[in-house]
Specification:
Number of strands: 11
Bound molecules: adenosine-5'-triphosphate, magnesium ion
Distance between the termini: 51 Å
Mean pLDDT: 84
Structural class: alpha/beta
Strand order of the largest sheet: 2-5-8-1-9
Oligomer: single chain
Largest sheet: 5 strands, parallel
Shape: globular
Radius of gyration: 27 Å
Length: 412
């Protein structure tokens, strides 16, 4: 127990959640062995500290620790990065190159986003895990190495196995000891603790007093869904620390920093926690909500304009349709009670087929692909073309972003 507290302090880990403690204890226990460890958990939950603990508490601690983000290395060069190449192995291989597996001899390699490894690289990796042997690209000489591998993934690997993207034998080899990090929303008790720690850190960094949350704001913070987990909490704390003059933050102010909390309105869709599909579904729902809102706005604007143009004419016909459309939700269950403002509105019986969308709505592209391109461009713009940060913001891996930029021929 005391060791656990020491480790938390040494590695800057905040939280008292039982599952978090168990995950850390597991890391501490396997550290002295050479067993492979696979860390799983959503993006931003704090997976990266696990390999650091494992390396730092092992007999390998004086040798190298190399962290490789497999998702950020283009497919064409990943074998050479990991295993090295010989001079002349491919165009541009002007000299011999040592790979990470050779560099990290007697140390630890952390393979982040392991699910992004191409199948051919997975074969090489399995071999080095099983025999400690590998061959440089373009060479035939077998090289020995003694490396401890810790891998991490924020995708569901069993699912990737099913779709043929990940080798089952490699999964079992890596997953000798699995360590799962819970999403932040499932350890709500730690959320405010983390906020306070980040608020203190940013206060120090920016030389200003720390921000505090009042009681209602604390409740709001703890009930939020945190799709980007601890990373998102940290970012938001930083934004508030910089932007808000008033250091006592209430719920109204905090709300401005929390992106739409869809889970509250749509509980059924998000009830399957850990469902890898939820991110894209969430995005699709968001699009739908936005489009619906845009259509309503367009209808309203058109209506207001026309009313302004013929002030005295009674509202009827097309206008009535628009109004009815705006007030009806899909199953027509919400129809406003008559009130004085609406007494003047005569609503004609509407045939559903006669309801026409406005021109603007028809022109608005509903293609997810177009929206994706638009979002990618925006994210790249916002981060001055830095793909790493753009990918983080979009919630996809750098490699996926790279692929999409190529696929859609996005210039940036
Ligand atoms: N328990 C914690 N205490 C303090 N800081 C934390 C904790 N968990 C995570 N963090 C911080 O949150 C940020 C995100 O964590 P990390 O980079 O480990 O996420 P990850 O799980 O590796 O995400 P990804 O899958 O996107 O790579 C880091 O800045 C990390 O220091
Ligand atoms: Mg990471």
């Amino acid at each position: 127990m005391e060791q656990l507290q020491n480790i938390k302090q040494r590695f800057g880990i905040i939280g008292n959640n039982n599952q978090l403690n168990l995950a850390l204890q597991k890391a501490i226990r396997v550290a002295p062995t050479d067993i492979s460890v696979l860390v799983s958990g959503e993006s931003g939950v704090g997976k990266e500290v696990i390999p650091k603990i494992i390396h730092g508490l092992s007999h390998r601690k004086h040798a190298k620790y190399i962290a490789v983000n497999c998702g950020a290395i283009p497919e064409g060069t990943i074998d050479s990065e990991l295993f090295g190449h010989e001079k002349g192995a491919f165009t541009g291989a002007l000299a011999d190159r040592k790979g990470y597996f050779q560099e990290a001899d007697n140390g630890t390699i952390f393979l982040d986003e392991i699910g992004e490894l191409p199948i051919s690289t997975q074969v090489r990796l399995l071999r080095v895990l099983e025999t400690g042997e590998f061959i440089k690209v373009g060479s035939s000489k077998v090289i020995k190495t003694n490396v401890r591998v810790v891998a991490a993934s924020n995708i569901n690997i069993p699912q990737a196995i099913e779709s043929g993207k990940f080798r089952e034998d490699l999964f079992y080899r890596l997953n000798t000891v699995p360590i799962h990090m819970l999403p932040l929303r499932e350890r709500a008790g730690d959320i405010h603790l983390l906020f306070r720690k980040f608020a203190r850190d940013f206060a120090e960094k920016y030389r200003m007093p720390p921000v505090y949350l009042d009681e209602k704001a604390q409740v709001l913070l703890s009930n939020y869904r945190w799709p980007g987990n601890v990373r998102q909490l940290k970012n938001i704390t930083e934004q508030i620390s910089i932007i808000e003059k008033e250091r006592n933050v209430n719920a109204d102010i905090l709300q401005n920093y929390l992106p739409a909390n869809l889970s509250k309105n749509l509980p059924a869709i998000f009830s399957k926690s850990g469902d890898e599909g939820s991110f894209s579904t969430e995005r699709e729902i968001l699009y739908k909500v936005l489009f619906d809102m845009k259509r309503d706005m367009t209808d309203l604007k058109k209506l207001v304009l026309e009313i302004m143009e013929n002030k005295d004419a009674p509202i009827s016909g097309d206008h009535a349709n628009v109004i009815r459309n705006l007030y009806n939700d899909e199953d027509g269950s919400f129809i406003p009670k008559e009130n004085s403002a609406q007494k003047n509105i005569h609503i004609e019986p509407v045939n559903k087929n006669s309801i026409q969308d406005t021109e603007e709505y028809v022109e608005e592209s509903l293609s997810l692909e177009d929206k994706e391109i638009e979002l990618i461009k925006k994210a790249l713009d916002k981060h001055n073309g830095k793909r790493k940060y753009a990918a983080q913001e979009l919630g996809i891996s750098e490699r996926t972003l790279y692929r999409k930029i190529k696929e859609y021929e996005i210039k940036g």
